[in-house]
């Protein structure tokens, strides 16, 4: 398969995605109507179509990870109870849909997470900062973590279980006005397209931080843009999609507890009230 040229990738990335307008662009009447009514906090997942994007990092126990045994049990619970979707796919109506997302591309994704996805027949979004990826394996990153090599990422792509997202070029915060947004937002998608022979349609903000200009730049070049936010979504067409941290789980189904789902709904309403 012939690798796409940078010119082709640039043409694809320069076509802006027209999602629903951000809050600031809604008509005053529509905005007031939407934000004046808090969510039905006692609603069950069967009452509505919802999207919960879970954010993971390492496949090891700790504040930024889960043990392989916990991930195994958690994936089994997801596979048995929720539709597992990737960005842009139709949501199953009247229930909670789940998107699994992993940040950074650490080596344990290749060694542990991918085999678990295969076992449970699940799929995940993997956010990669391509400026930190090299051709040789096991590059030190964040002290004890290691990143996958390009060869390992290509194996992951060939599995058919993983969609890729740009995660900045060098994994720096994007709320600093001095950041080169062309390099850190626009270019990562081009590099991933060429290296992995895939169309990159998603961008995940490193650390969940971004300026208004960084958000505008990301929305111009990618179909789906993710932050953290700790909230639930109602679909893929929001100007920015919220994620909920799933690191350091206390149980396989803990993150889906009714009280937590109510909290995620309330947090979405609160985030949008503040135009975040």
Properties at a glance:
two-stranded antiparallel sheet, 276 residues, 7-stranded parallel barrel, 9 strands, single chain
Short description:
This protein has helices at residues 6-13, 28-35, 68-81, 107-120, 150-158, 181-196, 212-221, 258-273, and strands spanning 50-56, 96-103, 124-128, 139-141, 145-147, 162-166, 202-204, 224-229, 241-245. The chain has 276 residues and is of the alpha/beta class.
What does this structure look like?
- Helix content is 34%, strand content 16%.
- The protein has helices spanning 6-13, 28-35, 68-81, 107-120, 150-158, 181-196, 212-221, 258-273; strands at 50-56, 96-103, 124-128, 139-141, 145-147, 162-166, 202-204, 224-229, 241-245.
- By secondary structure, the protein is α/β, with parallel strands linked by helices.
- Mean pLDDT is 84; it is low at 1-44.
- 37% of the residues are buried.
- A 7-stranded parallel β-barrel has the order 1-2-3-6-7-8-9, surrounded by 4 helices. Strands 4-5 form a two-stranded antiparallel ribbon.
What form results from the Cα inertia axes? globular
Give the count of helical stretches.
8
Number of domains: 1
CATH class term: Alpha Beta
- In CATH, the architecture is Alpha-Beta Barrel
Helix fraction? 25-40%
User: Structural class from helices and strands?
Assistant: alpha/beta
State the total count of DSSP E strands: 9
Q: Please indicate the percent range of residues in DSSP E strands (runs of 2 or more).
A: 15-25%
